Amino acid sequence: MLEALYVCRLATAEHLRLLVTPTTASSRYVRAELGKLARAGLVNAVQLRGRTRTKVWFLTRAGAAAAEASPAITARPHRMSAALAAGPLQFHALAVADVLMTLHAYRHASVLDCQVEVSHGQGNAQDPTGSSSRSMVITDAVIRPQPSAVEGGVPPVLFVELDRATTSSHRLADKLHAYDRYRQHRHAASRASSPSSWQTRYPSSEYTFPPVLVVITGPPERAGRRMDLVWNQLKQARRGLLSGLDSGEVAVAGVSHAVLLSHLARPGGLTAPIWTPLNPHAPATPVTLPNLHAAARPPKRT
DNA sequence: GTATGTGGTTACTGGATTAC
DNA sequence: GTAATCCAGTAACCACATAC
């Protein structure tokens, strides 16, 4: 439970029930355990914004230190506090936790194999802490699906970008552009023929840049409107800002948070045809992740 | 008033451990 | 080998607070 909270940063008791006791109907046991951890000073909680009855749990400094003792945890400098947990970050972090816990509960990916708020393209691209003020882009979640899913054609690494429609769609386009710059980024000391930063950091992805999956949060109707807006803007920007999308190596797709969770919450849900390519030259038809991956893969070298 | 989330308590089950 | 014990996990109560 500590490790999961370390990865997710914030989670409700219901999130942790999905992780710890997914077959039970009640989160009573999880809440009792959280109570023990709180009395031990390892976790703390704040109220869920807008809902006074629901708590949002996070690790204290002592809890984070205890989690870092686990070999499954990659230490990072970030620490959660009650002020941060109660602030505007809360909805965003919980939406990421929704995705991670659902992936874990339905055995699509282990929470401990995922990372949130991952900095990419900084001076040292292999920095395990991912901390740098000079990063090109901070990915909301990096997901490594289970080997069985990868064997079924799902990319070995997925970048997830959560879009709450709280900023302009131009900023989302800017962020996608940043991913394209990261795709081309190499270490300053590297020669042009050397591997890109992302190839060094994600060797399992081989020649294919991990797809950037834009997950639009909010009610499905509003998310659908947002996706139409983003798609049309990218289409208009085909000659300028997002020319990198033409290469076929950056496969960007959008789906609503609610749709994603409803599809993930079933066996084999990772391969549902729910992803609409945001590449301005691709048809706006939902595809599966294996199809997205296959389309982005460069032709075999002979 | 009803529904919901939380926390306290109790009882039960099943597996692991220990004593004989 | 068997009985006793411990403990984790679960469910079912209950009371309380709060939103609708």
UniProtKB/TrEMBL annotation:
Pfam families: Replic_Relax (PF13814). InterPro entries: Replic_Relax. This is Replication-relaxation. It comes from Actinomadura harenae.
